[in-house]
Amino acid sequence: MTPTRSIATLAAALIVIQPALARAQAQTAAAVTPAQSSTPPRSLFWDDFRRGWHFYEEPEPEALPPPPAKPMPPRPEAKRRDTRAPELIEFEQLQKRLEDYRNIAIIRPSEENVRRYMQLEAQVVRQASYFSDVAQRVAWATPDLDMTLQGRPVNSRAIEVFDREQATSRAQSLTDLARTHVLFFFFRSDCPYCHAFAPTLEAFNARFGIQVVPISVDGKGLPNFPTFRRDNGIARTLQVTQVPAIYLAEPYTGKITPIGFGVLSESQLIERIATVAAPGADAYAPSITKRVNLQ
């Protein structure tokens, strides 16, 4: 076969085969799965068949994963504005500076460090003294703030007046209290302190008219109180562990409040009875007051 005829035969074969190849290529493209269609199509030999079979294809570059997103740097928090009064801020700064100067002077007690601390301390003392002077003048001008007018005065002449008025008021209170209250006097016949305390109670009864009810723990009497009552268990109820003992009792209500133990003076009796009998006194120590059926 001549070369011219061979070339003509090959060309005719290609003309016949080329439509069939095109149809096969279309069917292959339609059969690609969705996963495959997502990848970029590779150039097929049939699209570039004129290059022939003997060529070198460079490998396609591998698809690298996208670099991770850089984390956003945290936004600096906005500094909150100090809403305190400027005087409070200044006072806090002064305290901090004084403490720092003192600590530095303790660790490094050089002449310069000690002098710096002492100068600042003197400034603080002068400021405190100025405050004290202003507070004193304000108290002088405002009776409600003057502590010398509250409670017991500090002036000697005023103390005399205060004590006299208080004694008169308490004497009147005890006289009124004698109408509804009595004093329980727990004693023992062999107790020397009970013998020493008995005359005070006898005089107290004569002065203020409040009745004293002597109760003998051992069943024997005293010279000042020959008439007495024997303990019927009330000493145990009131937890009387020491004599002499004095209790303020209200027979109509059964309310009994301890006044004290041991030998007491007349002024101590007056002060203590006035204190425990004051309105609202039970609220200070409610467990001390007891209720006993005295009828």
Name a few traits of the molecule.
single chain, alpha/beta, Glutaredoxin, 8 helices, 6 strands
Per CATH, the superfamily of one domain is Glutaredoxin
- Helix-strand pattern: HHHHHEHEEHEEHE
CATH topology of one domain: Glutaredoxin
Q: Work out the helix count.
A: 8
Strand content: 5-15%
Derived structural class:
alpha/beta
Order the strands across the largest sheet as they lie in space.
3-2-1-4-5-6
Q: What best-fitting shape do the alpha-carbon axes yield?
A: elongated
Under the CATH scheme, which architecture of one domain would be assigned? 3-Layer(aba) Sandwich
End-to-end distance:
156 Å
Low-confidence stretches: 32-39
Walkthrough of the structure:
Among the domains are: 86-137; 178-291, Glutaredoxin. It is 47% helix and 10% strand. It has a six-stranded mixed sheet. The protein has helices at residues 3-30, 34-37, 86-107, 111-141, 156-177, 192-208, 234-237, 266-276, and strands spanning 182-187, 211-216, 229-230, 245-250, 255-261, 290-291. The chain is an alpha/beta fold. Strand 4 and strand 5 (255-261) form a beta hairpin. The longest helix has 31 residues, at 111-141.
